[in-house]
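quick q for whoever's on today - can somebody do inverse folding on this one?? i tried earlier but teh output was garbage lol. tokens:
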């Protein structure tokens, strides 16, 4: 697993959020540059759709309050448009799974002031939703807590 290089993480806060407020609604749009390896984390009251490329390589996350328990929900689009073969989608799925720990570490590090002020967020369950045109790749998985990605 790759470790996060903080010098390659660029964090932006958009209107409706600050470094410490609010928790809900708080949306994360994480994108990257294939050329430089830089990661771009945008935190706002909605996803930052204009930063999403046609390749759909982003990681989209948000805090959810479910029956008095807060969780972190992540959506990953395995297939990009146009939808490729099952083999291509399977490869993208495996790449997302390999890189997801780095993405979660980047979100945790990039929003560390929120976690410092609200330490219970480190114990929130992380739920990953993989969406795909192929039913075999449509999965929902538990990925531990943010304490696992500090």
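ok took a stab at it. sequence:
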């Amino acid at each position: 697993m790759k470790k996060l290089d903080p010098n390659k993480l660029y964090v932006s806060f958009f209107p409706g959020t600050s470094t410490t407020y609010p928790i809900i609604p708080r949306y994360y749009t994480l994108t990257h540059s294939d050329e430089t390896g830089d990661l771009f984390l945008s935190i706002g009251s909605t996803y930052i759709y204009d930063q999403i490329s046609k390749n759909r390589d982003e990681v989209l996350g948000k805090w959810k309050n479910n029956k008095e328990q807060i969780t972190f929900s992540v959506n990953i689009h395995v297939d990009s448009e146009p939808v490729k073969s099952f083999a291509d989608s399977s490869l993208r799925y495996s790449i997302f799974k390999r890189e997801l720990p780095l993405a979660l570490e980047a979100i945790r590090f990039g929003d560390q002031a929120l976690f410092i002020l609200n330490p219970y967020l480190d114990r929130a369950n992380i739920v990953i939703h993989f969406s795909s045109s192929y039913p075999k790749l449509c999965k929902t998985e538990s990925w531990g807590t943010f304490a696992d990605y500090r």
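fwiw The longest strand covers residues 69-77. also Residues 6-149 form one domain. so keep that in mind when u check it
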